[in-house]
Amino acid sequence: MPDIVHPVSVEFAANANINAEQYQAMYKESIDNPDGFWAEQANKYVSWFKPWDTVSDWSFDQEDLHIEWFKNAKLNVSYNCLDRHLEKRGDQVAIIWEGDSPEDDRKITYKELHEEVSRFANVLKDRGVQKGDRVSLYLPMIPEAAVAMLACTRIGAIHSIVFGGFSPDALASRINDSDCKVVITSDQSMRGGRKIPLKVNADTAIDNCPGVTTCIVVRRGGDDVAWTEGRDIWYDEAIAAASPDCPPEEMDSEDPLFILYTSGSTGTPKGVLHSTGGYLVQAAMTHEAVFDYKDGDVYWCTADVGWVTGHTYIVYGPLANGATTLMFEGIPTYPDISRFWQVVDKHKVNIFYTAPTAIRSLMGAGNGPVESTSRETLRVLGTVGEPINPEAWEWYHGVVGNGKCPIVDTWWQTETGSHMMTPLPGAHALKPGSATAPFFGVHPVLLDDEGNEIEGNPASGNLAIDRPWPAMIRTVFGDHKRFYETYFSMFKGYYFTGDGAKRDEDGNYWITGRVDDVLNVSGHRLGTAEIEAALGLHEVVAEAAVVGYPHDLTGQGIYAYVTLMDGEEGSEELKAELVKLVRGEIGPIAKINIIQFAPGLPKTRSGKIMRRILRKIAADEVDGLGDTSTLADPSVVDDLIDNRENR
Ligand code: WTA
Hints:
One of its GO terms (molecular function) is acetate-CoA ligase activity. 31% of the residues lie in helices and 23% in strands. It has 647 residues and is an alpha/beta fold. Among the domains are: 108-252, ANL, N-terminal domain (Rossmann fold, 3-Layer(aba) Sandwich); 522-643, ANL, C-terminal domain (GMP Synthetase, Chain A, domain 3), CATH 3.30.300.30. An eight-stranded mixed β-sheet has the order 12-11-8-6-7-14-15-23, with helices on both faces. Strands 5-4-17-16-18-19-20 form a seven-stranded mixed β-sheet, with helices on both faces. A hairpin with a 6-residue loop joins strand 4 (93-98) and strand 5 (105-109). Helix 3 (34-45) crosses helix 11 (277-290), helix 6 crosses helix 7 (143-155) and helix 11 (277-290) packs across helix 12. The longest helix has 17 residues, at 110-126. It is globular, with a radius of gyration of 24 Å. The two termini are 26 Å apart. The structure holds 5'-O-[(S)-ethoxy(hydroxy)phosphoryl]adenosine (WTA). The site of 5'-O-[(S)-ethoxy(hydroxy)phosphoryl]adenosine has 23 residues, from helix 12, strand 20, strand 24 and strand 25.
């Protein structure tokens, strides 16, 4: 492991929200007395209409699997993100919106956001949306996405956001799985100067969604769209006609807040269900503690609201804290490769949070595009989504942050709802590539394959958590059995993350990546099973196996082994067709990098594909294949090696 350590800056620590001593004391309290600790945070970060009876009540056992925080307490998320700020910061900017084109921007105050959310909540009610109903959002990065989210929370509807880069099929299956009656989309979305036909995609999806009665369309691209009378309504016309008065619904702490689909190692994507009170407490607390957020800071998270990072760290965490949150519609390379840093200067951004894949691609263009900007307002930098290689970390630190901004490498998951491990900028020495230390209340353990805790340092194993935290997943929507099987059946008594990790001599954690069949491409989660199912739809494909391999830019690339039906011939045209097929089924994020036609796949005698071998061949590590004697036909491996494709 590299020895480079950047000590905590004394100057930074002196003004930090949390310094090293405070971290130690608070962490100890959070583990020794979790209920007392979280009760205090719940009172600090959230305004409740009615207090709770019990702080936590839980079991990870199969028979009785449940997780509850702040039981019977009442609150409303939009009230916490809007109404309670009005008196003190009604005229403060809540959302700075920076459009795809540098000429397009907007500032929305808390007062304005409150009014628009209230109006839109009334529009939803008019269309028959009631507490507990599901609403699907398929939107670009425009302020209306935040308005729609908050409007759902205002009336107790459960939003399910589908990333705009997913295909109509992927959208339809998510709408149907959670039985959404309303879909909110836009005419087109704008990315890198190009228009993407979101409404066309939504129409195609809704054709296969019998439960959808309303489609609300935000005007963005301005081009004509097809219209279904009675079902489709324009967002701007509807809010103009709606009342600006909509009292927030009193929600129970354990009422569902949102569903977000994510890929796992098997089957179709799962609807991760988050509930209200615990999620909001931890979203707000992590946003303040991890980014050292202070009143008046301009905060920018570059994620899309279609991912969990956008939920927690563009919308709910920052707005609960009364922050100014920047929402960016575009891409880092448009109109040119300095865009991120130009936006930092334009809006005087203090805290900047992005993904390693973006850093790596910008690093590839050299220092010039960064150094042409000042970035003097930056104080804290963050990363999320995948391990960051030390080289990219140092570039981010030295060139982007001028060597003066701590970097918080935040490890967490859709299921965890908020940060789980990260250095705190005023408390921890920074080790490039290490997610460092658990957040308050999080008790990570490393388990061997039999489920025994590995004590002592250094160590490495399967990363699990031995107790619940307030923002954790409550169930898989509509499938509590799958919830148990996915996260709690592997190691009894623990939440299993699916990640592997190492703990170094100092007890600091390093995430080594997924140990299951989940791929992480540019920080986006993709299940190998989903991609294999899509490939299997082609009439000449007999079988497919998909694995990840190390990729300089995207972290992992997608390598597919495809066996064709007897008598079929592989060709470059067929490869192109298969790539297109998967893209159409899942979306542009599922771009296969390499296809290898394979007459046979390495299988055990019981017919199980040995992915370990496929991963090695894809990574070009053919010398360390290990034991292949248990294969039904060891000769297939030689063929795979001989015919492997260039990376
Ligand atoms: C990976 C994104 C290393 C990890 C918030 C996890 C990371 C998966 C980091 C969750 C990090 C996320 N270092 N790996 N800082 N952050 N991951 O659900 O494999 O889209 O299990 O949530 O991303 O991805 P998800």
